[in-house]
Design goal:
Elements: H1 2-8, E1 12-15, H2 30-57, E2 61-65, H3 77-97, E3 103-109, H4 113-116, H5 124-130, H6 133-138, H7 141-156, H8 163-174, E4 181-184, H9 187-198, H10 201-213
Length: 214
């Protein structure tokens, strides 16, 4: 594969693969954590390392699909964890590749769940049935149902204009001066990122706790 691209040139790589799920920290198995890290984080790293020699040779572009969820978590900490990790990988890679003329860009979409179908609606019954006995002793079905309803309401608010994210990806690949980060999100989502990034953690926790209690 690499030999084939060596003859025709290799100009751009988009790391877009990702999976998502819902669940509080103790509800998810170690196997699930490993699977998400393997797909969302290590998958992108493996692909990048494989094509890095060609990208350096042709001064190409590398685009990574992150998320505003890299800044905060609302019931999907496992997904947030992988996106925060990929952001740090990109930050290191972007600086290292600058001397080779390779641009590294991050796309940070807001809620596009209705466009991507990355997360199906959550079933409280399925979540409850998969909980360990220890977790069932701490939580109850009513709590799980409330959290599932909350998360499903977020999914239902997702934008259907997935073309906005595609446009950002195209710009990252073709613009003479691409941005390091493209945040493609609603105003209220950008405001939440602003709070999480610049305000003290206690403020961030208060805002997110309020959102979770609604």
């Amino acid at each position: 594969l690499l030999r084939h691209f060596s003859s025709i040139g290799f100009w751009g790589l988009v790391n877009n693969a990702g999976i998502s799920t819902f669940g509080e920290t103790g509800w998810l198995s170690m196997e699930k954590y490993e699977k998400f890290a393997d797909v969302n984080l290590l998958g992108s790293i493996r692909t990048t390392l494989a094509f890095l020699p060609l990208l350096r040779k042709y001064k190409g572009r590398i685009v990574f699909m992150s998320s505003i969820i890299a800044y905060f978590a609302l019931g999907n900490g496992i997904y947030s964890m992988t996106k925060a990790a990929i952001e740090k990988f990109c930050d290191a890679l972007r600086l290292e590749m600058k001397k080779f003329g390779v641009r590294v860009c991050i796309i940070q979409p807001g809620n596009y769940a209705r466009s991507t179908k990355i997360q199906p609606p959550v079933s409280a019954e399925e979540i409850w049935n998969e909980l360990s006995e220890e977790e069932k002793a701490v939580y109850n079905k009513e709590y799980v149902q409330e959290r599932a309803n909350f998360f499903n309401s977020i999914l239902s608010e997702g934008s259907t204009n997935g073309n906005e994210v595609v446009d950002a990806m195209v710009d990252a690949l073709t613009s003479p001066a691409p941005k390091a980060r493209y945040m493609v999100a609603k105003l209220k989502e950008k405001a939440l990122v602003f709070v999480c990034a610049l305000f003290p953690t206690v403020v961030m926790d208060s805002v997110l706790s309020y959102a979770l209690s609604k």
